[in-house]
Design a protein that fits this description.
Arc Repressor Mutant, subunit A; WH-like_DNA-bd_sf; flat; WH_DNA-bd_sf; transcription; Transcriptional regulator; mainly alpha; HTH_HxlR; 10% strand; 144 residues
Length: 144
């Protein structure tokens, strides 16, 4: 255990590193990563890979409603951020398989908790929506 007192410069450097990432700050690099994770398709793609590796078309069938283009873009962003690993198998024709990295697994575990929480509480959500709609009229549906 280090019992030395840090210099003011070292303490300042440490404080700067600890405060370096703030998702609420406009220019923070964590903000677009959060968007990749929690965007319309990110959570679903990660959850679709949670039980094991999958090829592109199997993942597309799992994530009902995602277009080929959006799935490809989502996978590229998640791969770039270090959550997804892309492996090209040298067979004819070449096969591409996607899996979660260790960072992807630990992050997805937290997202799975959120998904399970949401699914368990959907009756409350639906009741709240119904109460709101009765008070304020039917809202324009935002499915997208």
């Amino acid at each position: 255990m280090d019992t030395t007192t840090p210099t003011p410069e070292a303490a300042e450097d440490r404080a700067a590193r600890e405060a370096a990432f703030d998702v609420f700050a406009r220019a923070c690099p964590s903000r677009p990563v959060l968007g990749h994770l929690t965007g319309r398709w990110g959570v679903l793609v990660l959850a679709g890979l949670y039980d094991g590796a999958a090829r592109f078309n199997a993942l597309r069938r799992c994530v009902d409603g995602v277009s080929e283009k959006m799935l490809a873009q989502t996978l590229q962003a998640l791969e770039r951020d270090g959550f997804v690993h892309r492996e090209v198998r040298a067979v004819m024709p070449p096969q591409v398989e996607y899996s979660l990295t260790e960072l992807g697994r630990t992050t997805t575990a937290k997202l799975i908790d959120l998904i399970e929480h949401l699914e368990a509480h959907m009756p409350q959500v639906l009741a709240a929506q119904e109460r709101h709609d009765r008070r304020h009229g039917d809202p324009a549906r935002d499915d997208g």
